[in-house]
């Protein structure tokens, strides 16, 4: 609140001011990327990534079918085609063994999504990208603070998109950032973010006035949002730690359920350091998932399913996809239930969630 008050008092309410610069420096340092640019959302950052990758009509980009719609929307808005691929049974991430079969002469990019803060196999995906000269965009909406083989997610591909939406780990209500690892993309990323102008150059004193240089848009959040976000970024480690404790407790307590074959816990491969963004149970079938979800909600516990696989959505169907195309995602989506994970979830409330799960699953 101090930072927000300071932003308001400064009178500099538009984007690109001192708080924005402080957030961007911290993000770039922490991730080890050349430049981080605050945006109004991860969705906007993904759209900037598609523009930077110069996707256009006739082009294709590979996307997991189990993700939030805007991963694919960023491609659709360039007139290009999202080519969906199935996910892995364990991490629910893009199945790297299916990516190469989806590559065609029109493929320009691979968009990976690190589901619930658990990294994709970036070695396999990177190798395919190098072989076919594809851009790699990391949708890190759920993955801030997570790593793969010690490397921060968002810094491994050519571009990374973060989200500060209220549902993520580090929040600003709405907000996001584009992380640019490649030096040759930095300047254009600034143009696109700054309404298609070279205002960033002007502010650095590199040009006498700024003007229209590219097809950008109003992608920058206000200083009030950046001020709020700065407080969150400065506390990111503490935020991650409290979520980790909640996540770890579910993981330990539910071990007997998994051993009895009643529910499967999230899988975190050894290469992955998760940010504990989400905790889900995979139930044996859809009816059990739906009944357990009802059981929780009747007791005031916010347990929810997750994505409708994109190929089953109206947009996916209009792209020519049909039920049965991606059986792993279909199965997972019908059996997945997410449990409450947030830093201030108190121990007694978490006890109730755990007791409810056992009471229901062990009785049926
Ligand atoms: C939340 C989310 C988004 C969208 O983030 P916004 O900041 O709300 O635009 C995109 N992709 C994934 C995987 C998400 O979880």
Can you characterise this structure?
The chain is α/β, with parallel strands linked by helices. The chain is 42% helix and 14% strand. It has 15 helices and twelve strands. It has helices at residues 2-10, 18-31, 42-52, 69-76, 99-102, 122-132, 183-193, 199-203, 223-234, 236-253, 255-259, 286-298, 314-318, 327-335, 347-363; strands spanning 35-39, 60-64, 81-85, 107-113, 135-140, 147-148, 151-152, 159-163, 176-180, 272-273, 279-282, 336-339. The strands form three sheets. The chain has a seven-stranded mixed beta sheet with strand order 1-9-8-5-4-2-3. Strand 4 (107-113), helix 6 (122-132) and strand 5 (135-140) form a beta-alpha-beta unit. Helix 2 packs parallel to helix 9 (223-234), helix 3 (42-52) packs parallel to helix 4 and helix 3 packs across helix 7. The termini are far apart. The site of pyridoxal-5'-phosphate (PLP) has 14 residues, from helix 3 and helix 4.
Attribute tags:
single chain; 364 residues; alpha/beta; seven-stranded mixed beta sheet; three-stranded antiparallel beta sheet; 15 helices; 12 strands; 42% helix; 14% strand; binds pyridoxal-5'-phosphate
């Amino acid at each position: 609140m101090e930072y927000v008050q300071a932003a308001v008092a400064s009178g500099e309410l538009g984007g690109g001011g001192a708080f924005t610069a402080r957030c961007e420096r911290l993000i770039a340092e922490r991730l080890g990327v050349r430049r981080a640019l605050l945006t109004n959302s991860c969705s906007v950052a993904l759209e900037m990534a598609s523009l930077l990758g110069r996707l256009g009509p006739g082009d294709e980009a590979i996307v997991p079918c189990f993700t939030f719609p805007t991963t694919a929307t960023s491609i659709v808005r360039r007139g290009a085609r999202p080519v969906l691929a199935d996910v892995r049974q364990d991490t629910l991430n893009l199945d790297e063994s299916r990516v190469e079969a989806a590559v065609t002469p029109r493929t320009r990019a691979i968009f990976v999504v690190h589901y619930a803060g658990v990294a994709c196999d970036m070695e396999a995906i990177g190798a395919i990208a190098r072989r076919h000269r594809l851009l790699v965009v990391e949708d890190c909406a759920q993955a801030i603070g997570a790593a793969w083989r010690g490397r921060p997610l968002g810094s491994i591909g050519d571009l990374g998109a973060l989200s500060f939406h209220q549902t993520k780990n580090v929040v600003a209500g709405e907000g996001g950032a584009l992380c640019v690892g490649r030096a040759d993309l930095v300047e254009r990323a600034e143009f696109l973010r700054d309404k298609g102008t070279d205002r960033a150059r002007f502010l650095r004193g590199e040009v006498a006035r700024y003007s229209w240089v590219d097809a950008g848009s109003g992608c920058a959040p206000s200083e009030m949002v950046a001020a709020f976000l700065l407080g969150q970024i400065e506390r990111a480690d503490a935020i991650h730690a409290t979520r980790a404790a909640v996540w770890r407790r579910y993981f330990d307590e539910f071990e007997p359920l998994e051993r009895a074959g009643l529910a499967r816990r999230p899988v975190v491969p050894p290469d992955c350091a998760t940010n504990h963004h989400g905790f889900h149970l995979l139930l044996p079938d859809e009816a059990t998932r739906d009944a357990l979800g009802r059981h929780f909600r009747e007791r005031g516990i916010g347990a929810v399913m997750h994505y409708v696989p994109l190929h089953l959505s109206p947009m996916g169907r209009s792209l020519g996809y049909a039920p049965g195309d991606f059986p792993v995602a279909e199965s997972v989506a019908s059996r997945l239930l997410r449990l409450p994970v947030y830093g201030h979830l108190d121990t007694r409330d978490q006890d109730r969630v755990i007791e409810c799960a056992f009471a229901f699953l062990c009785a049926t």
